């Protein structure tokens, strides 16, 4: 199984990136996880010629070719970071790599809530007509993330590891099921292409 891990931050030192790196290594025998950065994307400006930057097209192609997507999101002011919103805006502008794509959401935070409000907002965004991703009902929340890893980047709490293992196993099954439920994908693609917020 080939998965993309989208690093939803432009911070150079992030426990959300660290969590995705841990998953990449920890689940190496179950899936190939390629981490993709979004920190260098230009600011979305809705170009009238609908020309999408090459760097965005490269990310879109990786997502399209992958079996599923893991998004790691921090929480800033009760919401997802601007850099992640920017990436999603590009990835829904005349290109539709997330349509029916199985998505698992993870999030790490220094406090006790583990980016729960950002994850809720991200679910709503991923349900937008031009995105329409298929999001796993369960999410993985990592609280007190500064104390969660050892010096080698491994999670130290056995219960947290067991929970992540269980959710990831469910996600692998979810990916297989979702990829079989493809009857409506062409219709979703047509609806996304024809959708126009200005005509509502």
Name the features.
six-stranded parallel beta sheet, Rossmann fold, 200 residues, alpha/beta
What does this structure look like?
This protein has 200 residues and is an alpha/beta fold. It has a single domain (2-199), classed as Rossmann fold. It is built from 6 helices and 6 strands; from the N terminus they run βαβαβαβαββαα. The protein has helices at residues 15-26, 54-65, 82-90, 116-126, 158-180, 185-194, and strands at 2-7, 32-37, 68-72, 102-108, 134-135, 140-142. Strands 1, 2, 3, 4, 5 and 6 form a 6-stranded parallel sheet that branches. α1 (15-26) links the parallel β1 and β2.
Helix content: 25-40%
Terminal Cα span: 39 Å
The CATH first-level class comes to Alpha Beta
Oligomer: single chain
Reported by name, the CATH topology is Rossmann fold
Structural class: alpha/beta
| Spans where pLDDT lies below 50 across 5 or more residues | none
> What proportion strand?
5-15%
CATH architecture identity: 3-Layer(aba) Sandwich
Radius of gyration, whole Å: 17 Å
Order of helices and strands: EHEHEHEHEEHH
* CATH homology group: Flavodoxin domain
- Count of discrete alpha- or pi-helical segments spanning 4 or more residues: 6
Number of domains: 1
What's the mean pLDDT score?
91
Shape: globular
Provide a concise account of the structure shown.
With 200 residues, this protein is of the alpha/beta class. The chain has helices at 15-26, 54-65, 82-90, 116-126, 158-180, 185-194, and strands spanning 2-7, 32-37, 68-72, 102-108, 134-135, 140-142.
């Amino acid at each position: 199984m080939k998965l993309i891990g989208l690093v939803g931050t432009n911070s150079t030192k992030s426990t959300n990136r660290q969590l995705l790196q841990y998953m990449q290594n920890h689940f190496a025998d179950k899936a190939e996880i390629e981490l993709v950065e979004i920190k260098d994307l230009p600011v979305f400006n809705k170009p009238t010629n609908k020309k999408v930057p090459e760097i965005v097209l490269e990310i879109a192609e990786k997502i399209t070719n992958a079996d599923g997507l893991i998004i790691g999101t921090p929480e800033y002011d009760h919401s997802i970071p601007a850099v992640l919103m920017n990436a999603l805006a590009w990835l829904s502008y005349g290109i539709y790599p997330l349509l029916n794509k199985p998505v698992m959401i993870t999030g790490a935070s220094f406090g006790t809530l583990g980016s729960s409000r950002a994850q809720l907002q991200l679910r709503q965004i991923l349900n937008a007509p031009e995105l329409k991703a298929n999001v796993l009902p369960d999410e993985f929340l990592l609280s007190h993330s500064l104390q969660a890893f050892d010096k080698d980047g491994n999670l130290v709490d056995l219960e947290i590891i067991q929970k992540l293992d269980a959710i990831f196993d469910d996600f692998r099954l979810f990916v297989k099921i979702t990829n079989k439920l493809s009857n409506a994908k062409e219709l979703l693609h047509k609806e996304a292409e024809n959708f126009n917020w200005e005509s509502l």
